[in-house]
Amino acid sequence: MNKLGKAILNYLIRGLLVVVPIALSIFIVVWAVTTVDSWLNINNILGVDPKTGMSRNIPGLGLALVIALILIAGVFVTNFVTAPMYNWFQRMLNRLPLINFIYSSIKDLTEAFVGDEKKFNHPVLVEVEEGLKRIGFLTQQDLNKLALPGDVIVYFPFSYSFAGVVYVVSKERVKPLNMSAAEAMKLVVSGGVSGF
Q1: Three-state DSSP class for 137?
Q2: How many CA atoms lie within 13 A of 159 on its CB side?
Q3: CA dist 103 to 14, 26, 82, 88, 155, Å?
Q4: Which residues touch 149 (CB under 8 Å, ≥6 apart)?
Q5: Closest Cα to residue 118, out of 138, 94, 145?
Q6: Which residue did the predictor score with more confidence, 61 or 4?
């Protein structure tokens, strides 16, 4: 390949490195907004514009409505729902096996990232074997109920995925990392290419 061809290829690759992440980010945001709008079908409520004969479409109206409803629910639960009401709701859900399983799984996953009891806020470095270490998140420090007093539970997320794997690890192999949970998660999920 001649000098001009190599230069064009180099520019093409650099252009891709700039354009693809931006384009994918914009695509994901547009896709999320249009998907929520289509689920809610809010724009059909606005009717048809008499001048053009087309339906009135306000992009993002459905997403804005969802965010507003979540905010209102948060204000309502924080200020009006008492502990006995919340406990009664939890007891009712416990009586419905399938719904309880789905609800509790989603609730636990949500609380792992946000809320008062965040679980993924202790990034650690674990020596898996001699010379091999993995970054994970300490999720349980007391395993006495499992008759494993010297062990802890560490969650290891996969790169480029929301999935992960849970290991029971000896405490001696776990070393806290001097970085925030967000930085550690970004480092792992990006495959080690970002987060510093």
Answers
A1: strand
A2: 10
A3: 45, 31, 20, 15, 21
A4: 143
A5: 138
A6: 4
